[in-house]
Amino acid sequence: MSRTRKANVRKRLRAVDAVIEAVDNSGVSCKALDYARSLPKESEMTPRDKYTVFSRKHKGYRKSLHKVPKFTKVTIRRTPPGF
């Protein structure tokens, strides 16, 4: 991925972190917020997890994030254990 795409991914992840924190501070409680709170923050993620996703069909079991359909709309913060 290009530097611009990587910067946009990081910016998007930080924006999501800010929204989760704002909703958490507002006092709202729900199952989706509990799940979102359990996800790693952008600063806690490794570059491998930020820019690639697990794929059992690809060599090395990882594929670049921009090849995932609607990657801007789905969470990419979870990977299978051991990968």
TrEMBL record:
One of its GO terms (molecular function) is structural constituent of ribosome. Pfam families: L31. GO terms for cellular component: mitochondrial large ribosomal subunit. It comes from the Eukaryota. Signal peptide: none annotated. PANTHER family: 54S RIBOSOMAL PROTEIN L31, MITOCHONDRIAL, LARGE RIBOSOMAL SUBUNIT PROTEIN ML60. This is 54S ribosomal protein L31, mitochondrial.
